């Protein structure tokens, strides 16, 4: 179940970037995309660590 | 006033570039001598930590496109250039880190190159050869961009003409590669990654101040119109995040923007020279994995900083640079560095461009050379001696360098990043599925992977600048890119589901428990 929540959150981040570009634009969209990408990365990191593969 | 090259800028550039290459080469030679055999030369001792791997990964990820071409995009296309600048590039590279770490597992199964990973995964030498050939084709196209970046910087800072700059750049690269600079594997790359991160950040922030602040830049872009290479002024505004310039322009409309977003999402994992960085990595702890990701985050901001330099140049100089052939808007970053820092700025920024371009070029040449030896020749002549393979690898560097060089000389792409995006889409579409997804999806089959590669290559030829311009709707960049990437996914999953995977006992040895 939790993996679905992670995927939904990742999808939201991905969709949010063009939405901000259309609605707000300018510098806010430019640096906003970076902030959203950092949030995306943190979510991915949590996901990776949660399902850590031991060798 | 737009800066012009002087004797001081030329001397500064020559000293800075040669110093960086000399240090990289020394590192390379030292580590080459430590290698006992061909395999060790390829992947080292598998003892590289998160910081070295993180910096090396960002070095191969960011090429002349990011450190040089991004300013050209910002300058030429305003906000609509932001998509190809890679405002979401971090999403793709972080995905690559998460997915690519499993490459290490394939090293323990005997793989030393990306096509060997494919061979181990599908138990198919044919697929290994096909993957190797595809990589060579796509990486040669990508190499053209690196030459244009380096030659342009040389041309703008030293005042040499285009042909001389290109020739000199090629000689420098040839010496660097021949001396074994690229055999320093991750360490040379890590150094180069660190160099352009620091320099990119400094110039990005400085250029905002130099142009009069963010508000002034935003105001300029709000009132700017698109100017075509050559200087023809159009009535197309650059105030938004799309610009209806031509269907072949990636941000022509939201279909094109969607294509770019997916390209950036998939291509970091799809780039063989990127994902190969994990082959030499040691086992890391969770904490070290977080450190690796922090390095990736920090360096993925660098392309955005370079994009800002383009916006700043447009604010200060208007569209004047669009008249400078054959560099056009791509001249923005170098000239801004000269305007801000004088000869020192020119030298330091040139060093960053060479660091980015040569690290990617070296990474790609190494991949292509090993494609020829390990993935093609070794399969055809299985008993060939390792030292002969090493010699062939080194000799094959010559044509692998000359082909893209000739291409750059005869038809330099007007806008570097736009050109390289063509190869990037193909690598994203093909290798994201064939290499990355196959490491996780047990049901993937050899036939599915082969069909994906063939489909990807056919669609690549339908690029809007190749045959796509004659066959609508492939004259639209976004439609072409999405058809290629999603089509590869559809072919890969559909064909795999209808064909037989490897036997369960074989898959159990390949997939970790």
Total count of helical runs of at least 4 residues of chain B: 22
Can you summarize the main beta sheet of chain A? none
Q: What structural class do you assign from the helix and strand content of chain B?
A: mainly alpha
Number of strands of chain A: 0
Number of helices of chain A: 2
Helical residue percent band of chain B? over 70%
What fraction of residues of chain A sit in β-strands? under 5%
H and E order of chain B: HHHHHHHHHHHHEEHHHHHHHHHH
User: Which residue ranges of chain A are poorly predicted, with pLDDT under 50 across at least 5 consecutive positions?
Assistant: none
The SSE string of chain A, one letter per element, is HH
Termini separation of chain A: 25 Å
Give the largest interface pair and sizes. Answer: A-B, 27 and 38 residues
Q: Would you tell me the overall average pLDDT of chain B?
A: 90
Query: Into which percentage range does the β-strand content of chain B fall?
Result: under 5%
Largest sheet of chain B: 2 strands, antiparallel
**Terminal residue distance of chain B:** 64 Å
Say how many strands of chain B there are: 2
What is the topology?
The complex is a heterodimer of chains A (55) and B (513).
Chain A: H1 2-23, H2 26-50
Helix pairs in contact in A: 1-2
Chain B: H1 7-34, H2 38-43, H3 50-61, H4 64-77, H5 82-85, H6 89-100, H7 103-107, H8 114-122, H9 125-158, H10 162-178, H11 185-210, H12 214-223, E1 225-227, E2 233-237, H13 254-270, H14 272-275, H15 286-300, H16 302-317, H17 332-380, H18 386-410, H19 416-436, H20 446-461, H21 477-498, H22 504-510
Antiparallel strand pairs in B: 1-2
Helix pairs in contact in B: 1-11, 1-17, 3-11, 3-15, 4-9, 4-16, 4-17, 4-19, 6-13, 6-15, 8-9, 9-10, 9-17, 9-18, 9-19, 9-20, 10-18, 11-16, 11-17, 12-16, 13-19, 13-21, 16-17, 17-18, 19-20, 19-21, 20-21
């Amino acid at each position: 179940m939790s993996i679905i929540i992670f995927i939904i959150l990742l999808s939201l981040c991905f969709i949010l970037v063009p939405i901000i570009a259309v609605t707000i634009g300018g510098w806010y969209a430019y640096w906003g995309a970076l902030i959203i990408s950092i949030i995306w990365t943190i979510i991915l990191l949590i996901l990776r660590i949660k399902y850590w593969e031991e060798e | 006033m737009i800066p012009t090259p002087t004797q001081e800028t030329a001397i500064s550039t020559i000293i800075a570039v040669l110093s960086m290459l000399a240090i990289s080469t020394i590192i390379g030679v030292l580590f080459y001598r430590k290698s006992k055999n061909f395999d060790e030369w390829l992947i080292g001792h598998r003892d590289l930590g998160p910081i070295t791997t993180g910096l090396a990964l960002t070095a191969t990820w960011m090429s002349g496109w990011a450190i040089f071409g991004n300013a050209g995009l910002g300058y030429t296309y305003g906000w609509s250039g932001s998509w190809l600048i890679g405002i979401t590039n971090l999403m793709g590279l972080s995905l690559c880190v998460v997915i690519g770490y499993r490459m290490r597992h394939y090293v323990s199964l005997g793989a030393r190159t990306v096509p060997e990973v494919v061979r181990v995964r599908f138990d198919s030498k044919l697929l290994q050869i096909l993957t190797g050939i595809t990589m060579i084709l796509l990486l040669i196209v990508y190499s053209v961009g690196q030459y244009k970046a380096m030659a342009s910087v040389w041309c703008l800072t030293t005042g040499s003409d285009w042909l001389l700059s290109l020739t000199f750049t090629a000689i420098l690269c040839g010496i660097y590669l021949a001396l074994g600079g690229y055999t320093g594997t991750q360490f040379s790359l890590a150094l180069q990654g660190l160099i352009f991160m620091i320099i990119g950040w400094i110039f990005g922030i400085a250029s905002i101040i130099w142009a009069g602040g963010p508000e002034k830049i935003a105001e300029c872009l709000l009132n700017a119109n698109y100017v075509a290479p050559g200087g023809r002024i159009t009535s197309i505004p650059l105030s938004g995040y799309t610009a209806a310039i031509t269907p072949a322009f990636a941000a022509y409309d939201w279909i094109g923007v969607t294509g770019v977003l997916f390209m950036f999402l998939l291509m970091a994992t799809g780039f063989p020279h990127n994902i190969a960085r994990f082959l030499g990595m040691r086992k890391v702890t969770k904490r070290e994995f977080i450190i690796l990701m922090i390095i990736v985050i920090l360096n993925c901001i660098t392309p955005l900083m370079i994009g800002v330099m383009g916006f700043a140049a447009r604010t200060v100089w208007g569209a004047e640079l669009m008249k400078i052939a054959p560099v056009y808007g791509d001249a923005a970053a170098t000239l801004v560095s000269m305007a801000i820092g004088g000869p020192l700025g020119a030298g330091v920024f040139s060093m960053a461009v060479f660091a980015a371009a040569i690290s990617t070029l070296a990474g790609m040449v190494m991949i292509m050379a090993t494609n020829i030896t390990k993935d093609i020749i070794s399969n055809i002549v299985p008993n060939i001696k390792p030292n002969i393979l090493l010699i062939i690898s080194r000799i094959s560097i010559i044509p692998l360098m000359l082909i893209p060089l000739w291409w750059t000389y005869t038809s330099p792409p007007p806008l570097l990043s736009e050109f390289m995006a063509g190869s990037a889409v193909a690598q994203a579409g093909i290798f994201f599925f064939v290499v990355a997804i196959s490491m996780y999806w047990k049901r993937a089959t050899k036939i599915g992977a082969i069909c994906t590669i063939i489909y990807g290559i056919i669609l690549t030829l339908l690029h809007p600048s190749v045959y796509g311009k004659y066959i609508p709707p492939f004259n639209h960049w976004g439609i072409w890119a999405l058809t290629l990437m999603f089509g590869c996914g559809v072919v890969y999953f559909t064909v795999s589901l209808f064909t037989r995977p490897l036997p369960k006992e074989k898959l159990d040895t390949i997939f970790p428990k």
